[in-house]
TrEMBL record:
Pfam families in the record: DUF4232 (PF14016)
Biased composition (Low complexity): 39-56, 67-78, 106-119
Keywords: Signal
Feature: compositional bias, Gly residues: 57-66, 79-105
Region of interest (Disordered), residue spans: 37-125
Name of protein: DUF4232 domain-containing protein
Organism encoding this protein: Streptomyces sp. R08
Signal in keyword set: yes
Length: 259
């Protein structure tokens, strides 16, 4: 009887063992199922990492902004083109354009001022002439002509002198001819020397004392122009004779008095 009883117990124990194994297997399957779901979630998360480049792509907007700046740079380049002066209105859209336009305007003003500043012949109308006796060289007088006008004037050739309404003018000392025309800006002076008489004591012929003087000027074509200048002579007058001569107009009094 005890042997019979042991067999059913053994079978019952085996059945219990099988049941426990089945439960363990089921539990393992359940755990695996949870892990599978977790893996699924992980794979679901993967697209999220795929979306990250889209945010990085947002950085591309920054790149677009940079491109915009580059476009602005092109606009600045357009301002440079505007500096050419052909399209001043376009240049005006940028500071650079305005500056370039102003520069073009200045260039035009300078060009105009150069045209208006073209020289004219010196004459009694735009100069003041003085006559001064000098101690050296002896029997010499220095003429000083100053530009009193608003434009540059040219002293062509030499002064044509007329003492006391004489019938002729004294000859010029050819050796005194300058290499270029003497030009006077407003306020500037030119000079000419006058050899009044020959010898230390005025030993020339037909000498006399002159009381008045008229100074005539020439134009570019060697034509006498009016009005004449009438500088005052010393109160006692100046002694002149047939040796009377004059230098060309020069830019230096020292140069004039070397003849």
């Amino acid at each position: 009887m005890s042997a019979f009883t042991a067999r059913p117990r053994t079978r019952l124990f085996a059945a219990a063992t099988v049941a426990l194994a089945a439960l363990s297997l089921t539990a393992c399957n359940d755990k695996l199922g949870v892990q599978d779901e977790g893996a699924a979630q992980t794979s679901t998360t993967a697209p999220t990492s795929t979306q990250a480049p889209e945010k990085t792509g947002g950085t591309g907007k920054t790149g677009g902004s940079t491109a915009g700046n580059s476009t602005s740079g092109n606009s600045s380049t357009g301002g440079d083109n505007g500096s050419g002066g052909t399209t001043g209105s376009n240049g005006g859209k940028s500071n650079g354009g305005k500056t370039s336009g102003g520069s073009g305007s200045n260039s035009g003003t300078n060009s105009g001022s150069n045209t208006s500043a073209s020289s004219v012949p010196c004459s009694g109308a735009n100069t003041k002439v003085t006559a001064q006796s000098v101690s050296r060289p002896i029997n010499h007088m220095l003429l000083t002509v100053t530009n009193t006008g608003t434009k540059t004037c040219d002293l062509y050739y030499y002064p044509a002198l007329n003492f006391d309404d004489a019938q002729s003018v004294p000859p010029v000392m050819k050796e005194s001819q300058p290499q270029a025309v003497t030009t006077l800006t407003p306020g500037q002076s030119g000079y000419a020397a006058v050899a009044l008489a020959g010898g230390d004591n005025g030993t020339g012929t037909n000498g006399h004392t002159a009381k008045s003087l008229a100074v005539y000027f020439f134009d570019r074509n060697n034509n006498s122009i009016s009005p004449a200048a009438t500088p005052a002579l010393p109160a006692k007058g100046v002694y002149v004779d047939d040796s009377l001569r004059v230098t060309y107009w020069l830019s230096s009094a020292q140069d004039a008095l070397t003849y």
